[in-house]
Amino acid sequence: MEEKLQPIVQQLEQAFGVQASEYRGDVTLVIPRERIVEACQKMKDLGFELLSALTAVDYWPEENPRFHVIYQFTSVSQNLRLGFRVPVPGVQPTVPSVAHIYHNANWRERELWDMFGVKAEGHPDLRRILMPADWEGHPLRKDYPLGYEEPQFTFNFDEIDVRKPYAKE
Amino acid sequence: MGVEQKLGNLGIVTTTLEQAVAWSRNYAMWPMLFGLACCAIEMMAAQASDNDMSRFGMELMRPSPRQSDLMIVAGRVSRKMAPVLRRLYDQMPEPKWVIAMGDCASCGGVFNNYAIVQGVDEVVPVDVYVAGCPPRPEALIHGILTLQDKVVKKIKFAEKG
Amino acid sequence: MPDIFEVTVDDLKHLVSERAVTGETMLLNMGPQHPSTHGVLRLLLELDGETVVNCIPDIGFLHTGIEKNMEAKTYQKAEVMTDRLDYLNTVGNNLAYCMAVEKLLDLDVPPRAQAIRVILTELQRIASHLVWLGTAALDVAAMSTFLYCFREREDILDILELVSGQRMMTTYIRPGGLWRDVPVEFEAAVRDFLKMFPKRIDQYEALLTRNPLFLDRTLGIGKISAEEALNLGVTGPLLRAVGVKWDLRKARPYSGYEQYEFEVPTRTEGDVYARYLVRVQEMRESLKIVEQALNKLPMGPVRSNNRKYVPPPRSEIGVSMEALIHHFKLWTEGFNAPKGYVYSAVESPRGELGVYLESDGGPHPYRVHWRTPSFDNLQALPLMAKGHLIADLVAIIGSIDIVLGDIDR
To answer: What's the whole-model pTM score?
Structure first.
């Protein structure tokens, strides 16, 4: 762990009663869901100006917690990095929105809803962002199929050609 | 469509007129200024200094579909983009042609998944497929020359050749 | 074919001003097929006359499902997808992904491979800025710059083709090093480019920097403050144009950037013109880095010797049965990565390009997330565009240097 990061991590560990973990130099704290807004505010006060990434990981078929929502912070002034993970259960997954603290969380939380179906509570404009508005399902969930279509080769050309939906004029 | 309807059936003259019209269409084909992904950059390179597509009468890119004859589908077509692409095609006046540029537009390419249409021929009828990921500008120019061959030799009025 | 999903004013009430509901201001759709949106960006504009009151971007028209598709491939094969994300910075994407994999595997990279990586990514940065300069100048009606910029871009693509065989999608950088060593002609080709290019930058600057038409279109347009920019997660040249000296190559050096001397150009104005100046200066700095890296290019292997993850060299496959089997197994089954998660970032021409990579211990990445710079940079557009004319909006979109493949993934 970088020397400058140690007091910050200690402060966060005490404030939220959690234990930091380190892997290949990346420091991560697991923050309970109810306290994430508070934690983000604290990060902002500690001089982490940039919310670098906000995404999630799906651990299906695990149900509790099914998702881990990931927050990655960067401090431009102190040149530091720190990550948060927030466990979220699989039934009606929600996280509190942090878009009022970090404004770029706005689109990132919309992406979270679009791709994982994790709702950001209190978000000002929660719509789908990447998929069409009438799309069903959340593609990055592990139980969502990849949508593989059989490629057309010489040996199965005719077979696939029959059912391929060619466009009309 | 167009000139032959006004003139009616001119018998033996029509053949030569057809040839003349096809020839003129061939060398003043206006592609639509419409890029989707990586291939659009190579399409730009094909029009820029080194490759200069205007040698074949194809330099006049029209941003409006109503003024263009040729749609170059340059890049992968997502499920969200497909209806938009079809609407653009419907807005183009006859006669119109489509080139599927690159592997993604031709068959889905490396992206065999939920988001990408597996070949733009599911959305619009395609005349020429250009292979490559992305195709070199030379490959696109070859595709266009192939289309020009197609237009001159096999053109049929009121329907696509 | 599903119909285009259309929304009404009622659905967007919370995004537009009240005057739009009464019909006092006009709602106008711009894109996804529009010559100045640099791809398939769609904007919903609320206009008072020609002044932009509100600008609501609608993205996703190029959503490719790359993150999901990468989960279905092995670590080596997934790399093919990375080129096609930000298609102007293909080598940089490979570098970001390979660095994340190397961090996850704790894999070493030989110094020669690192230096070649730096040379190629910096050349790619110049090529990307050239496309930006050509198209952004075209947006403000400067046609000849476009032709000049694409002329020089071809030279860079020729170098990339020389080393990898492909002009754009090189996949030349591999986890643990490079695909193979550079050919002998490489050094001469890069030196030729280094000799020729500074004069060409002077040409572009002669065309634009003090051109009154260009200044009229760019000075004081699309301003944003440093605080707003940071809050919106803006990185790259946009952030440096508001006076924040933040460049990952300097701040958190990777791939041996700490050995090279270069400046991080900044401006304080934060308008379209400042972004132009920053990017042009960046091209000059990139040239410096390439020159230094080429001058002290070390000899030696270009691939890590860790055979657990890196395939054996070609020369061994011909004589050793074990090497052949090993090579075959690595490319069919892949390698098992240790369980864990890493976040690693590089400075792309557009800003911080980060990769979040998680492994469950198997041969496929469990989750790959791309923190792409344009996604956050574009979020600043509504703020920048407010109160400007539509014609200026075109210049602002050009100055952000968006790549839709980078945004939609």
So the answer is: 0.91
Say if the Cβ atoms of A104 and C246 lie within 8 Å: no
Q: Which two tokens stand for residue A89?
A: 């259960």
Q: What is the sign, positive or negative, of the torsion defined by CA atoms of B141, B143, B147, B150? A: positive
Q: Does the beta-carbon distance from B49 to C148 stay under 8 Å?
A: yes
Strand partners, C26: C47
Q: Which domains, and CATH codes, for chain C?
A: 9-58 (no CATH), 66-106+109-303+338-408 (1.10.645.10)
Contacts of C86 (CB under 8 A, 6+ apart): C92, C93, C348, C350, C353, C372, C374, C403, C405, C406
pLDDT (mean) for C345-353: 91
Neighbours of chain A (3+ CB pairs under 8 A): B, C
- Note the pLDDT of residue B154: 62
Q: Which residues of chain C are within 8 Å of residue A129 when distances are taken between CB atoms?
A: 59-60
What residues have CB less than 8 Å from A63, skipping those under 6 apart? A89, A90, A91
Decide if B13 is inside a domain.
no
Query: Which residues, numbered 276 to 315 in chain C, qualify as contacts with chain A under a Cβ-Cβ cut-off of 8 Å?
Result: none
Instruction: Quote the ipTM score.
Output: 0.91
The total number of structural domains in chain B stands at 1
Contact B80 A132 (CB under 8 A): yes
Using one digit for the tens of pLDDT, what is the confidence trace for A57-100?
999 888 888 999 999 999 998 899 999 999 999 888 999 999 99
**Three-state secondary structure call for residue A112:** helix
> Is the Cα torsion angle C91, C96, C99, C105 positive or negative in sign?
negative
Distance CA A161, CA A15 (A): 63
The interaxial angle of helices B38-47 and B137-154, nearest 10 deg, is: 80
Contact A70/A57 with Cβ under 8 angstroms? Answer: yes
Give the nearest partner residue to B36 out of C39, C65, C80, using CB atoms: C39
Contact C61 B80 (CB under 8 A): yes
Q: What is the pLDDT of residue B10?
A: 55
Which residue segment(s) compose the domain that A121 sits in?
A: 5-163
